[in-house]
Amino acid sequence: MWLYIVRRMILLVPIIVGVMTITFLLVSALPVTERLTAVYGDPSPHATWVYNPTLTPGQGPCPGAPNKQPCSNPVYQRDLHDLGLDQPVPVQWGIYIFNSLTFQWGTVSNHSSAALLIPSIKGLPVITVLSWYLPNTIELAVLSLLIILVISIPLGNLAAVNRNRPVDQAARIMSFSGFALPGFLLASLVLTGVVIGVGSNTGYHVFTPWCPSGATLYGEFTGSWPVSSCFGGVGGATSYPSWIHNNGIYSTPTGFPTVDALVHGMYWLALDTIIRMILPALVIAFGTIAILLRFVRNSMLEVMNLDFVRTARSEGIPEQTVIKRHAGRNSLNVTITVMGLLFAFFIGGFPIIEDVFSLNGVGLMLAYSVQNSSGPIDFSLVFGSTLLFTFIVVFANIIVDVLYAYLDPRVRLG
Amino acid sequence: MEPMESDSISNASSPAPLRRGRRPNPQIEQWKRTWYFLRRNTLAIVGLGILLFFVAMALYAISQPLPWDNLNQFCSTNQGSGAPNDCLPGQTEICTYGAGTTPPHAGCYQTPISYPSVVPPTWSASPLSGGPLPLGSLTVLPSGSLYFSIFQGLLRGVDWTLMISIAIVGGGAIAGLFLGAISGFYGGVVDETIMRIVDIFLSIPQLLFVIIVISVVDTTTTSVFGLAPTDTKVLLLILGFMAVWWPFYARLVRGQVLVVREQKYVEAARASGGSRGRIIARHIVPNSVYPVFIQMSLDVGTVPLLIAALIFLQFQLFPTLYFPEWGTLAALSVTQIGAFLTDCQVGICYIPWWQLVFPGLALFLYAISVNFLADGLRDALDPRLRR
User: Fold this and answer.
1) Which among A355, A405, A397 is positioned nearest to A113, based on CA atoms?
2) Which listed residue, of A352, A387, B4, B387, carries a Cα 20 to 30 Å from A314's Cα?
3) Cβ–Cβ of A180/B342 closer than 8 Å?
């Protein structure tokens, strides 16, 4: 078993290096000024003029240079040297790989769309910002995955047992509808329905008994903090608790809002956080249930044709027991694989869902950083997210493989 | 208790019945059989019908001598202030006047007083050449963007949508088929190399990769291969998506080839003296290609949804905001409905539902029809799944 894990870990190295090579090629295609911006943010103490949107040709410290174009300025030369951009390409590649592996992913640019939308992340290291936002996404992913599991396994089994009967067709139509309905459409419709139905007067915010007027502790809120009776009417809290930092963006000690609320004994707050996540989780589940449902149904169909099920039936074991104990359990192997991959995919964030529901996750951060209509795209955040999601996917693959090998001896011994 | 599914019923394993006089072409027989099984699947036929309708729409749209730039059907009005309006010849002017009063200009298109530049749905086609549903543009349109009816947008959008999704999926499938087949046939070092590259590409998040490719090229240049900006963006979009799409196909085809290569009928063909080329062309490729068709038909429906997702994230893919592509129209209308709902809370409620419903319905029908068709094809092409 350990040998298998080590073997898988060694296979991981070329993949990670390969992904970084591809991102390196793309980074290298950027203009030098953009690369400097991605590392230092701007305006930086290093070279404010390197990226200056107001600079016009013939002005600035570099007479005659076109807009945004660097010239031989001692500060600029020093920055180039510090970054190793004056080195040959293979050396630059090595520096890039080293920086990526040591989480030196650059700085959020001051002028980028993400920094304009969330001012408190200006000039911060990308890895810090992502680590604030990741726990929220993980909680959302876990909740959606739980909903998907609870629905798709029984439904998939039911569809396989009643193959091509109305139940099967209904399950198929439902899952395909979820697949075919664009996520933003469904999310907006659900939110609109809730806003209209519940009568919250602040637009896109979910009403809960604890926080009226759509104030949310971890998301954006439109009203001013504090909202009366938002803390469950307990204690009349007037500001964020000391363990919630940066206007509700992240919390200590774990960073997971629900866990932190429980750690600090605010059970109602944990419940509130979960209630806020249920609608987005349901939307996500509806959109992705088709994938798991199809796998469960097909693997169940395959298992039901196997000899041991036939034997069990011929022994006179009740049909329900055969389906549950014999067929159902043996069809779960594939389900676990798909689930692991789905989870990795989920942690990659749900830009649209988090955007619509104003949840502070990596998806929202990603959505803000690519908005090239509201400001320059933030290359440090985009490339940083790419590296983060790659790490997550690759490690999830390994965990799934190991789990699979643990469940199925043929894999680890073969 | 349901009777056991039996594979021996399926016609694929029994020889085709020989009619007297002439020997039927086995391939035609195979197609007939597939069509027979497909026909019995109601959902698949519904999907095929919807898809054919869209294809007909696309053909009609292409045959119309109307380039997409001329979609600017509406123009904003001077509202009687005496200043020149920005109308071009042939455009319909949008004015504000109440019901029962006289229009300020002749041929002016009536809009509700509370929302001056919303064109409400009407069945009258009179001032517009577009068709029966002149549905329209909104208050928040920036100047210089296109004003066109949703009906025209859908009609012009169908060929862009079909073209982009087919190009992406077709290109990805061809590249994947080629590399996957090579990988499966030759094995060894070639296989290892290609599969590691596939692993690398599968680990990169899809949407992010497309975003990065487009924005990196965008920072450097606005035109590649001397193309117009619109075509450049569309080409980049297609190439970016192809780059993240081929690995799925490569892996799929390789797996199929590895399985098919070891089948008894391939061994039999080899034993009876079939050449390598014949075995590949007649046995391995036809038997490993049908999962690719199924996957392709599934993916063709996914592409417009992904484009819509990018647009919804306000990542500007196309040079103009209102590009007549279904995903774009649906995504933009969602944002606009949001603006209207905010107004709605102030007191005046005017929700242009048609903005959202028609592009959304088109996207949904397109995606779900290809899904139904793919599901039906899977059942019809795979003898083990037939009843």
Assistant:
1) A355
2) B387
3) no
- Chain A residues with CB under 8 Å of B212 CB are 23, 26, 382-383, 386
CB contact under 8 A, A176 and B212: no
Q: Measured on CA atoms in the order A380, A382, A386, A391, is the torsion positive or negative?
A: positive
Distance of CA B169 to the CA centre of its chain: 9
pLDDT tens, A9-47?
888 888 999 999 999 999 888 877 778 777 777 644 444
pLDDT digits (tens, 9 = 90+) for A69-92: 555 556 666 777 777 887 888 999
Read off the pTM: 0.78
CA pair distance A161, A168, nearest whole angstrom: 9
State which H helix or E strand residue B38 sits in: helix B26-39
- CA-nearest of A390, A321, A322 to A20 is A390
Any chain A CB within 8 A of the CB of B316? yes
The answer to whether residues A156 and A175 touch, using CB atoms and an 8 Å cutoff, is: no
Chain B: give the shortest CA distance to residue A378, in Å. Answer: 10
> What CA–CA distance (Å, rounded) separates B68 from B160?
10
* C-alpha–C-alpha distance, residues A185 and B337, integer Å: 11
> Distance between CA atoms of A119 and A116, rounded to whole angstroms?
6
Residue where the block lists tokens 């597939």: B34
- Burial class of residue B56 in the structure, from the number of CB atoms within 10 Å of its CB (0-12 exposed, 13-18 middle, 19+ buried): exposed
Q: Phi, psi (5° rounding) for residue B78?
A: -85, -5
Q: How many residues appear in chain A?
A: 414
Q: How far apart, in whole angstroms, are the C-alpha atoms of residue B362 and residue A176? A: 15
For A75-111, give the DSSP string: HHHHHHHHHTTTS-HHHHHHHHHHHHHTT---B--TT
At residue B74, the pLDDT reads: 58
Higher pLDDT, B320 or A219: B320
Place of tokens 């990741």: A134
Q: How many Cβ atoms from other residues are within 10 Å of residue B89's Cβ?
A: 4
Assembly ipTM: 0.79
Residues from chain B that touch A370, judged by Cβ atoms under 8 A, are 211, 215, 313-315
Q: Are strands A244-245 and A250-251 parallel, antiparallel or unpaired?
A: antiparallel
Cis peptide before A43 (omega within 30 of 0): yes
Identify the pLDDT of residue B311. Answer: 85
The interface residues of chain B toward chain A in range 190-209, judged by CB-CB distance below 8 A, are 196-197, 199-200, 202-205, 207-209
Query: Who's near A22: CB < 8 A, 6+ residues apart?
Result: B200, B204
Contact state of A373 with B345 under an 8 Å Cβ cutoff: no
